[in-house]
Design a protein that fits this description.
Distance between the termini: 48 Å
Radius of gyration: 19 Å
Strand content: 15-25%
Largest sheet: 6 strands, parallel
Length: about 325
């Protein structure tokens, strides 16, 4: 397991030193071109991923099974977790929103990044940078961004376990860099994925059980930025975050180029929340500070709302035929 961030020195910890040693500021800076997504025929290589040795974990305890939406804290604990998704599926290469990541680094804001295995495979250098950064905790977002609620048993297995293989390959690329040849620094790196976010936020009882049996906690959210919607303004996204903020909240956004106005909205919301006394922590740190609020189903904002979304999408597909 990776060391808790609060156990590390604030200024000169291993991961931060590793990041600056391996990349210049110019190399870390995001570009507008990287934000763009492209369609291609590239598919993730399952055979390569199946050869990766993964850690074994005990299944999640009965008390933590289900979909974790937030954490109940004492009123004086103004902690909040920002989470960002890096989705990517076969036939599609999504982007890297450097404006978001650069801003979090500039402001020293922690976040939990839920990364698709395929995104790690198609963004080897950026993936290594994210793993090397002490501010970021990495969670799984499945292998190919498949709908877990409709997946077969075999697909569920690959989506859960091979996503971790892709993470371990990305970690291995970082460890093989000559700039990282310092055992003490490497020891602080995250070495497994213990958190999972369902692609699309969709699940069913079988998917919840499969993730828990793999020793991963299913993490959802209770504050939706809505950033994939191009019609949402910077101010509206920021207002959604600040207006709904509460101790123990989990915020969802995107950093794979599919979020619109995400970086600019965070530049409004984060300073405001800091002024109000909030401190940004990773999801694991948030869980360690209180009692998780768990649902036995997945939903965006209210129970059952995803079924309506699925019905709308089904009708739209029918109209296109």
């Amino acid at each position: 397991m990776h060391a808790a961030a609060d156990d590390r020195p604030d200024t000169e910890n291993a991961a931060s030193t590793l990041l600056s040693r391996c990349w210049s500021e110019a190399a870390l800076a995001g570009t507008e071109k990287e934000r763009q997504s492209t369609r291609n025929k590239t598919r993730v290589d399952l055979d390569v991923l199946r050869k990766v040795t993964r850690p074994s974990r005990s299944p999640v305890s009965a008390a933590l099974r289900g979909s974790i939406r937030s954490v109940k804290l004492n009123e004086d604990q103004k902690l909040i977790a920002l989470t960002l998704d890096f989705c990517e599926s076969n036939g599609h290469r999504t982007g890297y929103d450097g404006q978001v990541i650069d801003y979090l680094r500039d402001e020293d804001v922690k976040a939990t990044l839920f990364v698709s295995g395929k995104w790690f495979e198609s963004h080897p250098e950026r993936g290594a940078q994210l793993i090397a950064d002490r501010r970021f905790e990495i969670g799984s977002h499945g292998l190919r961004h498949r709908d877990f609620s409709r997946a077969s048993k075999a697909t569920l297995h690959d989506e859960i376990h091979l996503a971790e293989s892709a993470f371990l390959r990305a970690r291995g690329r970082l460890m093989r860099k000559s700039c990282s040849w310092n055992v003490q620094e490497i020891l602080s790196l995250q070495d497994e994925l213990t958190l999972m976010r369902f692609p699309y936020g969709w699940c069913n009882a079988r998917a919840l059980s499969a993730v828990a049996d793999a020793g991963q906690l299913a993490i959802q959210w209770d504050i939706v930025t809505g950033d994939p919607d191009p019609n949402l303004s910077v101010k509206r996204i920021a207002k959604a975050i600040v207006g709904q903020a509460h101790p123990g909240a989990i915020v969802i956004g995107h950093a794979n180029g599919h979020g619109h106005n995400t970086a600019e909205a965070l530049k409004l919301a984060i300073p405001k929340l800091k002024e109000e006394g909030y401190r940004f922590v990773t999801v694991s740190e948030l869980l360690a500070a209180g009692e998780p609020v768990i649902a036995q189903s997945c939903y965006t904002e209210r129970p059952g709302d995803q079924r309506r979304v699925a019905q709308v999408k089904k009708r739209r597909r029918g109209l296109k035929k």
